[in-house]
Amino acid sequence: QVQLVESGGGLVQAGGSLRLSCVASGRTFMSSNMGWFRQAAGEEREFVAAIRWNGGSTVYADSVKGRFTISRDNAKKTVWLQMNSLKPEDTAVYYCAGKTGGVGLRASTRGDDYDYWGQGTQVTVSS
Predict the structure, then answer these.
(1) CB under 8 Å to 76, separation ≥6 — which residues?
(2) Which of 30, 77, 85, 104 has its CA 20 to 30 A from that of 56?
């Protein structure tokens, strides 16, 4: 069973930066596609970014393209989300998620495609 633990959230002013980390336990991380999702209060969960198991390709939501960067290090079992030029509308709980058996699959933008999730980390951007 894979467990994910996110960290790095906090309070930041608009225009600032944060780097979220997601550390995995278990051996399936290395073959898992990984994604970041977020959920603002009273809103539905939305896709933010995803990366294939080998880091070979990434995909981003239009709302974060050019500002956020997803990356991973399989040796460290860690995936990161670097968030720059943050806006108040980026305020949400951010979740890391993994899809086992990612080899041969695209990195999905659909939350339902992911098998395991972290507990989330709060990001608050003040104006």
Answers:
(1) 23
(2) 85
Q: Are strands 10-13 and 121-126 parallel, antiparallel or unpaired?
A: parallel
Name the one residue in this structure whose structure tokens are 């608009």.
14
Given CA atoms 55, 95, 98, 23 in this order, what sign does their dihedral have? positive
Q: Mean pLDDT, the chain, as a whole number?
A: 96
Rounded Cα distance, 6 and 23, in Å: 7
How does pLDDT run across 15-55, given as a tens digit for each residue? 999 999 999 998 889 999 999 999 999 999 999 999 999 99
Strand, helix or coil for residue 25: strand
DSSP character for 107? P
CA distance 64 to 115: 24
Q: Which helix (H) or strand (E) holds 97?
A: strand 92-99
Give the model's pLDDT for residue 29.
92
Residues 107, 93: Cα–Cα separation, whole Å? 21
